[in-house]
Amino acid sequence: MRDLSETLQAAIRSTHRVPALALTVEDRVQHFPLLHALDNTDDVVQDACIAADKSIIRVWVDNPPSGSIRCTYRYQRITDPTQLSQWQSSTIFGSGTDLDREGACAVSLNPGNILRAFGFRTLTNNTSQLLVWTSTNNGQTWSTSPTVIATFSPSANIKGISSAGNNDVFFLLETTAGIVVAFCLWNGSAWSAPQQWSNVPALATFANGSGLAVAWLGDRYHLVISTKVSLLNYSYWPGSGQWFIHTEILDSSYTGTIHLFPRIIFDPGSQRYLLAHIQNDNGVRSGLVSQTVRVRSATDPRYWSNGASFRDGLPGRGVSLVSRPDDGVYLITARRVYRSPHFRYEDENQFAVLTNALLSYERVEQLNQPARIEITLDNSNGQWNDLIGSQTRYRPINFNASLCLYEGYRTSSGDEIVRTGTYRITQIALERAPNRHLLKLVALDLSRQLDHVNLHQDTIPGFGARYIITRICSRAGIPDPDIPLSGGDLDSPILSFLLPTGQPMRAALDEICMIYQLSYFLDPDERLHFRFLPADEAPVWSFQPELETVTFTSNADRANHVIVSGRAAFSSSATVNGEAYDEANVHHTGIERLAYRADPKINGSDRCTAAALSLLNEQRTLAMQRVLTVPYHPGLEPGDVISVSDPRSASTGNVRIVRLDSRYDRASATYAHRLHCSGT
Q1: Statement to judge: residues 523 and 612 lie in one domain
Q2: What single-letter DSSP state applies at residue 538?
Q3: 342: helix, strand or coil
Q4: Sheet with 308-310, side-by-side order of all strands
Q5: Rounded to the nearest 5°, which phi and psi values hold at 175?
Q6: Residue that terminates a domain, selected from 293, 308, 341
Q7: For residue 1, is it within any domain?
Q8: Pairing of strands 45-50, 34-37
Q9: Do 361 and 274 belong together in one domain?
Q10: Fewer C-beta within 10 Å: the chain N or C terminus?
């Protein structure tokens, strides 16, 4: 149950309740509309960062002229991103006319407001060099010639460069053993010699590489590495010198697409990490050939969303991202610049208060499903028409914008409301008649994204349920799920779990939740909560005089004998079973009803028995149903246990809420809950 003040709890129990409500709409979607189309036709490799004075510093390596392999290294300093002319002009770095295109480039803002731009060149004497240019005046001028960070002899190729802005540079180095990650660190007076990673398990070298991205997380570096067929996640702790490999962002067994030139930033506006990369589809799986820019997000960069792709980006060989303070996020390709503004309550294109126009709403919340709300607003004289957006005109009332509902009562301290839901708009309807003009909105909560079809296959080997759940939710764009820290054996490894392509992600999530007897719901802050539902859970509220109508139902049509089959151990193929039997129900009905479940992801006979007992208890609780109509309670959530006492029907006890139907109607003075409950 949500936390409520004592005065608000007293108002709920009062017989003289006066509703208090608020409704707002917020467009926090990163639309990335086109800002500029650039004249450049080269497929340039590029990077960008923000200088201390908020100017955008962009660097790139040109295509070599015909008959040459030498490329020119250029930079831009953009102080006013709205001016196309600043995106069209560039300056060549001093001694920057003989770089290698394949080595790519990078730029970063470092401590002391020092800008560093990195490049790579091959010399004629069978040596190659990693180079850096510096600027101490926000990119207005740069060092007249580069400093050599490292020399490789015999010559070695570099397949990508990135810097997190922490006096560092990371790069993909091609060695005789394959491609490895190497890095150099600045100690205040000199660059360290190139260091290759160590203590890394399998996949320490790659056959191919096409760029990397690195971010500094305060105590460690996080790297995303392109092997062309996959994107890999790594972490490096400089204090201990330890590396750790995470599971792939994209499963390399899914052939047909290649993923190139990743770039990472942290966006303070959304409080998320953003990952952009180029995605090329050769048509092997889809039958369609395409090249797109894909942008993913994460609160923890170990777990990335599927994100969205922009096919009009004409990305060529490079893409970059920057988050400009007090402005927005810029997505930059060789030929396009897109801008998504940071959300601001003061921006009438992003925020509006709809409270005074609220006529009615009906809402349904239930475990393991997205909440749904239908809202009716007074649109007299078309007062809200100008706030309705479209595909080309972004206004606050738009698809996927957030409806934020606050509910409560008038108390001795004034109107007290709590945020009870956030819903993404899926339908907008205008209704006009001689005596009314209405705006109707239908919205679902963010967990609806679990019903989206998974784009790429994801094989998760040897991880527990906690990791798998986090990965599925993050893939669906619902980061940082709240999962119980103890109980349920959620960290025991599962031999292999497959998140298949072409199927809704909720199907995979429900499968793992069924094994471990977890239920879930989304809170008003759009965080997904997973809960065990123990039979002895204490009630959070009690209803007796507030009951308006109540229905008590018992159902005999349920299983009373459950058998679960699984593996004998993590790596074993032998089958074991667990069993649960409700003898009292068999005596009561004279019927044995068997339920059988086989799942190789359940390891050990004890685990099978626990699963059988849990499934049997679920059958028991669903056999007892209660439907209550009560005054609206803003604290109740799906899964809460409440106490019900109705002396006239001789029924008293605890029940669990599995569904809440809420209704508000200003004209009829309706503000009520209809609670669908099961046994505990």
Answers
A1: no
A2: P
A3: coil
A4: 257-267, 272-282, 289-298, 308-310
A5: -115, 175
A6: 341
A7: no
A8: unpaired
A9: no
A10: N
- Res 494 pLDDT > 90: no
Cα dihedral sign, 535-539-543-548: negative
Rounded CA separation 126/128 (Å): 7
Radius of gyration, CA atoms only, the chain: 29
pLDDT of residue 199: 59
Supply the mean pLDDT for the chain.
89
Position 638 scores a pLDDT of 94
Higher pLDDT, 538 or 568: 538
- For residue 286, what is the DSSP state? T
The three-state secondary structure class of 176 is coil
Lowest mean pLDDT among 424-438, 571-585, 656-670: 571-585
Burial class (CB in 10 A: 0-12, 13-18, 19+), 540: middle
Dihedral of alpha carbons 546, 623, 372, 525, sign? positive
Q: Tell me the C-alpha distance between 447 and 329, whole Å.
A: 25
Q: Are residues 578 and 527 in the same domain?
A: no
Give the domain CATH number at 170. Answer: 2.120.10.10
**CB-CB contact of 641 with 540 (8 Å):** yes
In which domain, by residue range, is 375 found? 6-28+346-444
Residue that terminates a domain, selected from 341, 374, 406: 341
Q: What is the pTM of this model?
A: 0.91
Q: Residue 32 and residue 341: Cα distance in Å, rounded?
A: 8
**Amino acid present at 490:** L
The answer on 40 and 23 residing in a single domain is no
Q: Is 199 left (phi over 0), alpha (psi -120 to 50) or beta?
A: left
Domain count, the chain: 4
What's the CA gap between 182 and 587, in Å, rounded? 71
Specify the CATH number for the domain of residue 514. 3.55.50.10
Angle formed at CA 521 by CA 517 and CA 524, multiple of 5 degrees:
155
> What's the pLDDT at 203?
47
500-501-507 Cα angle (round to 5): 55
- Mean pLDDT to the nearest integer, 643-649: 74
For the four alpha carbons of 467, 468, 469 and 475, in that order, the dihedral sign comes to positive
Report yes or no: 409 and 420 within 8 Å, Cβ to Cβ: no
Q: Give the tens place of pLDDT for each residue, 39-54.
A: 876 677 899 999 999 9
Of 655, 669, 660, 654, give the one whose Cα is nearest residue 629. Answer: 660
> Could you identify the residue written with the tokens 């004497």?
125
Confidence check: pLDDT of 167 > 90: yes
- Give residue 493's pLDDT: 85
User: Is the predicted pLDDT of residue 375 greater than 60, yes or no?
Assistant: yes
Paired sense of beta strands 257-267 and 272-282, if any: antiparallel
- The pLDDT of 336-362, averaged and rounded, is 97
Q: Which residues, 6+ apart, have CB-to-CB distance to 227 below 8 Å?
A: 206, 207, 208, 209, 210, 252
The reply to whether 10 falls in a domain is yes
182 occurs within a structural domain = yes
pLDDT at 560: 82
Q: What residue type is assigned to position 472 of the chain?
A: I
pLDDT tens per residue, range 174-190: 888 888 899 999 999 99
C-alpha 200/C-alpha 198 separation (Å) is 5
Question: Which pLDDT belongs to residue 608?
Answer: 84
User: Do the Cβ atoms of 320 and 274 come closer than 8 Å?
Assistant: no
Query: Picking from 152-156, 296-300, 468-472, 551-555, which range would have the lowest pLDDT averaged per residue?
Result: 551-555
Give the pair of three-digit tokens for residue 508: 């995979």
Complete DSSP assignment for 101-161: STT--EEEEETTTEEEEEEEEE-TTS-EEEEEEEESSTTSS--SSPEEEEEESS---EEEE
Asked whether residue 229 carries a pLDDT value surpassing 90, the answer given is no
High-pLDDT (> 90) share of the chain, %: 60
Tell how strand 351-353 and strand 19-26 pair up: antiparallel
Angle between helices 465-475 and 505-516 in degrees, nearest 10? 160
